[in-house]
Specification:
Two copies of one chain form a homodimer.
Chain A lengths: L4 H6 L17 E8 L6 H7 L7 E7 L10 E6 L7 H15 L4 E5 L3 H5 L3 E3 L2 H5 L20 H14 L3 E6 L1 H16 L5 E6 L17 H22 L3 E6 L6 H10 L3 E2 L2 H6 L4 H17 L5 E6 L2 H4 L1 H13 L4 H7 L3 H11 L2 H8 L3 H9 L14 H15 L8 E6 L10 H19 L5 E6 L9 E6 L4 E6 L2 E6 L9 H15 L15 H4 L4 H8 L1
Parallel strand pairs in A: 3-4, 3-6, 6-7, 7-12, 8-10, 8-11, 9-10
Antiparallel strand pairs in A: 1-2, 2-13, 4-5, 12-13, 14-15
Chain lengths: 549, 549
């Protein structure tokens, strides 16, 4: 079989545009709003972006198209990790571009930003692009993690654009990539290259979010896919009634994914990294919290449950971060050789005990042996502990087991482990993401056509039906502040963490005690693309709760 | 949220019955076919089942219902691992039972066969059963793995039935449970208990299949769920272009699941345990086969791929089975203490080298260290190696790495690992499984109503639309043969392995060379319950190919 039946069928789906973009290109007019300021550090940001700072927010409305008629050649880049809907951004961009002028051309740079630097591209046509409509993945042109951030790279980019007559670049990426899009836009303007740069907000992690970006694309589909799986595991758990399932979900820097999945599936426990950091929780406290649920449920005859863990949680545990820093120090340079020369784990353990502070040794001592060994045996090329490789789902399940033993719990406690990440990044985009992404791309071209530079394609009012969505653009500089990164002050778009006083967390907090003791599992099932609107077009619970404020 | 929107919506789905069952209870008549014989060992089986052997195959047809009017009290049991659709078997059974006579009652024995022995039950009513229509899981009454097989258990079962006036038991289970249903039916007949026993074919593994059972229920939904995930991982793989993903799927005794997933997703490599056994393949040969694909693809610039591995494959590798047997022997009794007293892995390794035959030591030596240690350190209560715990996805990815190094391959080879099992056993049943299961349950009651005992509920012609399905019953003894189990000759339903001369494997075999070298990934996406028939009601490729014969 060349194509799945669903893929064939999805080709026929017509993504829904915001109402104001539905009247045809000739009927899209611009309404300019207020001049903008960056969210913080205005003077510094303004100084860094003399050409692109302070521009006006814009909204598209129904009205005569007043843009200048000229041939446009546009380039598009997919940057960073995959997120469902990326193909539709490209399709929307292509359709608006071709609808405006059949001679317009869209270049796709291959393998991420490096494609622009290496001048590695394809030119889209109908036959090619139609194969990717409403599909998951970034295989349309591939993606990559090269960062576009140095003046040397910018100069090459400008040259490549000049060579092909490219007048605009659309960068589809996360917070870093959109920050860099802003910097590139400034460069292009400062150097009178005539190239516009437009960003599009992508990331399944959901941490590219602010008062202008209601949600990054891909979050909807990815969390629905993980919730499908968590719900299925919950139902298995509640049928077999014999296992505690520890489920890790993607999301290293923020816990939006875990939180949304928890809201959708109501597991017994869900850890939220931001809360762990705010409350300075220890590993032991976390394990105790889970053990409480195990014991309470066992008293009710339920020797089973589900725990959801965000991928990055251990990095938010203060004592654990200190331990990692000490281990990195302990093995720096030639000390690693000394350590490696020790023959047995016993000797190595003594070496470790000798080298760590008492506080860190206490943390180290309660870790399961497998994790202890992993911390010392698997290190990255710089000799540092590879925190991302730590199987935190196993770490916590074992620590809970130890807690239970300490507390004299002698009943059944059997565990199973899962990690859901790669399963959700390339799913067929939900109707929401199909619509949202297509709109972002379509809208991006309208920003180009109207001559804007350094803008983010913005589609908002997303918890309403698509007909009521609002399309427009926001200067990227408006979202920036100055942060210290790698020892340097840099203008960046702030990464959005879960807000502990936000509506989604508050809802979770108000319900979790009940979820921990009872079985309140909810089973979302697989993403549906056809059928009743309430089943197919539901936004995330996070978005719904945020908009209910 | 109490219920997901999909769950609420699925309550409204009306499962499709076979055409002949659609005219109402009053219009269901029986057509008796030929008397049957067991598939093998006729004399022995006949002697063991004097009361239930040789009965006629029956089919339901449109015609006047001639069954005797009497109140029926029926019990139902879910046996063994979860499979999507179990709830619908109960719903179909309940609906036919209530449609026949409002005073009829359905008892659900809780937690599997042990519920019958412990007299632990609930009595279904509309309000309760409606909460489970078209949903996944076995949480309606729970399931369990107690085997009903001894005369003592049968006597208790008969007593419990008598106490409640139960005149029929429906057992929903796999090959073992249906074998036991046949034995229980014989007991009930031999002892004139007046209790009928009817079996229903359940297992996601797909290994309860023969000329009468086209497919066990749950296989369709489970393989579609795994294929969704494998397809998503493939798309991620083909977008990021930097990893080899090793994906293990459930299925210890047979590879139907892996094969169906491979047919749906076209990975680069899929191992089939039955082929490994038939060709007496070594671990090294398997690793070489995968390494071939890695190298060929790398030569074409593709440093990525997907390998699907059936859960039980290592148990089918002859040399590995010998090794496991030797290890069990090596650690039997007090020898385990001697082994455990050795302080370092080095000493332990020497002990192992000393104890194994040269051939097995050769196999042991090529295993990754983590697997070597696992074989010796984690043993079951009887001191045996826990083969099911072996992470074969990691075993093969590491062995392939070693092969590549041996062969001088110096390019990128980065791996990721997945195991898909619990994610699929409790998914919302596909329309196919919703319809099939409801029909099996409805049909089971018609068999009861017409007085049959020791029959399996049979619904066939399943690759056609449901209106053309054929409903009826087959004596369980017809599927039996004598096999040696735990040192005893026993009458059992034969477990169906993947047939290497069957159409599904032949199709796979004809295409796999291309799949190994090129990127032929297919992305099935999530199971759809609404929308176009070709998307929602598609049977498995295995079934389609088998019926195309």
């Amino acid at each position: 079989m060349e194509l799945s039946v669903l893929q064939k069928s999805r080709y026929d789906y017509a993504p829904k545009l915001p109402g104001m973009l539905r009247h045809g290109i000739a009927e899209i007019s611009v309404k300019e709003g207020e001049e903008t300021q960056s969210v913080a550090d205005q003077e510094q940001i303004k100084a860094l972006f003399p050409n692109t700072y302070g521009k006006k927010e814009i909204t598209f409305v129904k009205g005569a198209n007043t843009s200048a008629a000229k041939k446009q050649v546009v380039g598009v880049i997919l940057s960073g990790g995959q997120a469902p809907g990326g193909h539709n951004v490209v399709c929307g961009l292509y359709d608006a571009l071709k609808a405006t002028n059949k001679d317009n051309e869209l270049y796709g740079f291959k393998g991420g930003p490096s494609g622009l630097l290496d001048d590695d591209y394809l030119i889209f046509d109908d036959a090619y692009i139609n194969k990717f409509r409403n599909t998951g993945g970034f295989d349309i042109i591939g993606s990559g993690r090269t960062k576009l951030e140095t003046p040397e790279q910018f100069a090459i980019a400008a040259e490549v654009c000049k060579k092909h007559g490219i007048t605009a670049i659309v960068i589809i990426g996360g917070d870093d990539s959109n920050t860099n899009a802003g910097v590139l836009a400034e460069y292009m303007a400062a150097n009178n290259t005539g190239v516009q740069v437009i960003g599009c907000p992508k990331t399944i992690d959901g941490d590219l979010k602010n008062e202008d970006i209601e949600i990054s694309f891909g979050f909807d589909t990815a969390t629905k896919t993980y919730s499908e799986l968590i719900g299925n595991v919950e139902r298995d758990c509640n049928s077999a009634k014999k296992y505690w399932h520890f489920i890790k979900v993607m999301g290293r820097s923020a816990s939006h994914v875990a939180l949304e999945c928890a809201l959708q599936t109501q597991p017994n426990i869900c850890l939220i990294s931001e809360e762990v950091a705010a409350k300075k929780m220890s590993l032991s406290q976390i394990a105790d919290q889970i053990a409480d649920s195990v014991i309470t449920r066992a008293e009710k005859g339920m020797h089973f449950g589900v725990v959801v863990i965000p991928e990055g949680v251990v990095e938010f545990v203060p004592e654990f971060s200190v331990l990692i820093a000490e281990i990195n120090e302990l093995l720096a340079g030639s000390k690693a050789d000394e350590f490696n020369s020790l023959a047995s784990w016993k000797e190595k353990y003594a070496f470790i005990k000798d080298g760590l502070t008492e506080a860190s040794m206490k943390v180290f001592a309660i870790l399961p042996t497998a994790i202890q060994q992993q911390l010392f045996l698997e290190r990255d090329p710089h000799g540092n502990v590879q925190v991302s490789l730590i199987e935190s789902e196993k770490l916590f399940s074992e620590m809970v087991g130890a807690k239970l033993a300490e507390r004299g719990y002698a009943e059944r406690y059997a565990t199973l482990h899962h990690f859901f990440g790669y399963e959700g990044r390339c799913a067929f985009p939900s109707n929401f993401d199909s619509d949202y992404c297509y709109s972002l791309g379509y809208n991006a071209f309208m920003l180009i056509q109207y001559g804007y530079n350094g803008y983010l394609s913005k589609v908002s009012n997303l918890s309403a039906p698509a007909s009521e969505w609002v399309a427009g653009g926001m200067p990227i500089t408006k979202m920036m502040n100055i942060e210290r990164r790698h020892g340097e002050d840099k203008p960046v778009i702030k990464k959005a963490l879960v807000e502990l006083d936000g509506a989604p967390f508050k809802y979770f907090e108000a319900n979790r005690a009940k979820w921990a003791e009872e079985t309140c599992f909810t089973y979302p099932g697989a993403i549906q693309y056809y059928g009743p609107t309430e089943v197919c077009d539901l936004p995330t619970i996070t978005l719904t709760l945020e908009h209910a404020k």
